[in-house]
Write a structure and sequence with these properties.
Layout (H helix, E strand, L loop, with lengths): L3 E3 L5 E3 L3 E2 L7 H12 L4 E3 L7 H11 L7 E6 L6 H15 L4 E6 L11 H17 L3 E7 L3 H8 L7 E5 L7 H9 L3 E5 L11 H8 L5 H11 L3 E2 L6 H8 L8 H9 L16
Parallel strand pairs: 3-4, 4-5, 5-6, 6-7, 7-8, 8-9, 9-10
Antiparallel strand pairs: 1-2
The structure holds adenosine-2'-5'-diphosphate (A2P).
Adenosine-2'-5'-diphosphate binds next to helix 9.
């Protein structure tokens, strides 16, 4: 159970990915990625904006795993939106990673109405380039990140629909409307910051629930996402934690405890709203 999720086009995606936001390029990224891949992970999530694609790529090679056994995601940064620049940015990402195809490529953030009068048009032009790259076989699956239903709707009318939406998701920030929209439309939700970037780990209610299973709060958070059919991307540069975060297949959160987490109010939100951010 939970070995992988299956995307709308049939591509299988390993059910827990290593997040690499804030992971420094160079030796750290290389070592962390190689360590994770040699220790049960087969899915790495990076982005052009993390400035670590070169190190991530070296880690992939250093792991010794065959390329086809690794699922690699990257994301198009906001300054590169639009048809031509999306294609160029994709080629740079591939070259920085040292790969000849990507498993998944995402639009990192939607252009929003607050800062772009033609936001929908920009997102559609970006999506047209992503679609062409996908149809040309350079990417196995395409999707978006931080898109809310009103950003997603125009894309749902195009030739190839998004297969993934990666959003902030953790106890205390469940984005129920966006999750429901994605599930109703066959879009897999991925959770960035499934541990609330560490902010929710000190919550006493979560600590009590984790205690029911002899697990850490981090493990409870990862398992909580999985049980809601959401793919968690916990980030860590610490070997012990990297192991801990994937050691979640030997317990099941009870329906009662799931409901308690679902009913907790908001806490631990990053403060980043896709309609407000100015980057
Ligand atoms: P570090 O990378 O120094 O190990 P998120 O995935 O929600 O963005 O959270 C990432 C943050 O949580 C990082 O600061 C990371 O620290 C920390 N972290 C990751 N895994 C664990 C864990 N199992 N226990 C405690 N902190 C963790």
């Amino acid at each position: 159970m939970y070995d992988y999720f299956t995307l709308g086009n049939g591509v299988k995606i390993p059910s827990i990915g290593l997040g690499t936001w804030d992971t420094p390029d160079g030796e750290t990224a290389e070592n962390v990625v190689s360590f994770a891949l040699r220790n049960g992970y087969s899915h790495i999530d990076t982005a052009a904006a993390y400035y670590n694609e070169a190190g991530v790529g070296k880690g992939i090679k250093a792991s010794g795993l065959p390329r086809e056994q690794i699922f690699v995601t990257s994301k198009l940064w906001n300054t590169k939106r639009g048809y031509e620049s999306t294609k160029k940015a994709f080629e740079k990402t591939l070259s920085d990673l040292g790969l000849d195809y990507l498993d998944l490529y995402l639009i990192h953030w939607p252009a929003n109405q607050k800062h772009f009068s033609d936001a929908d048009k920009i997102n559609l032009e970006t999506w047209r380039a992503m679609t062409e790259l996908y149809l040309a076989g350079k990417i196995r699956a395409i999707g978006v990140s931080n898109f809310l239903p009103h950003h997603l709707k125009p894309l749902m009318e195009t030739q190839v629909k998004p297969m993934v939406d990666q959003i902030e998701y953790h106890p205390g920030y469940l984005q129920k409307e966006a999750v429901r929209f994605c599930k109703d439309n066959g879009i897999l939700v991925e959770a960035w910051s499934p541990l609330g970037r560490g902010r929710v780990l000190s919550d006493e209610r979560l600590a009590r629930l984790a205690g029911h299973y002899g697990k850490s709060v981090a493990q409870l958070c990862v398992r909580f996402a999985l049980q809601n059919e959401i793919l968690p991307l916990p980030k860590s540069v610490t070997e012990k934690r990297i192991l801990e975060n994937r050691d979640v297949m030997d317990f099941v959160i009870s329906d009662e405890d799931m409901a308690e987490i679902e009913s907790m109010g908001e806490f631990g939100w990053s403060g980043l709203h896709p309609d407000e951010v100015d980057f």
